[in-house]
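Retro notes - structure team

What went well: the batch runner handled both jobs without manual restarts.
What didn't: labels got mixed up in the shared folder, which is why I'm recording both outputs here explicitly, each with its sequence directly above its tokens.

Job 1
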Amino acid sequence: MTAPTAPTSPAEVYHHSLRLLLDKNIPGWISLWAEDGSMEFPFAPEGWPRRLENREAIAAYMRHYPDHIDLHDFPELRIHQTTDPEVIVVEMRGVGRLVETDSPFGMTYIAVVTVRDGYITSYRDYWNPLAVTAPGTDFNRSSR
């Protein structure tokens, strides 16, 4: 019997990344990133980061994520293959609760993700900034 191998296809890596987020395993999630990986937020509102340049910056951004958002599930997950075998387009919804207020959390995402040699090298996260800038919304800008 052979030992299981680490996920390497973009879809496998992405599925694994979601499991790690649900398990609140941020160090494990960060380990899926290439050293020079980048994370972009094209629709980020004023005062929020638009681009994180490497694994260290992404780790700093995500370090306290579970302290702010308690993710419960990613329903409606759709992963679309592209003509580039290293690139997927992901549609999903993240649900859970905001830790500080104990209010429900729900966000719809579209992401364009590149995985090379089993590591995430690029992640463009097209989340809805209106959901976090609405009156009464309690989000921490350093870890959306």
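Job 2
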Amino acid sequence: MLQTLWAEVKQGKIELLELADLPEGTKVLVTLLPASEADRWVQKTTTVTDSIWDDIEDRIQIPTRSE
């Protein structure tokens, strides 16, 4: 399964911006985003992710307890 994680370079090392359970030796593919495009990518991916979650929430029927 592919997983996308945000990270940034600090003192020459790539540091994740979120917690992730990555086993030692996990292979990663790093895509560099020019600073001028990074904000646009964050905005676009957030918009897409939000719309997916909104759609899922609309489809899930949470049963309510009858009183």
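One thing worth noting from job 2: Residues 32-61 form one domain.
We'll revisit the folder naming next retro.
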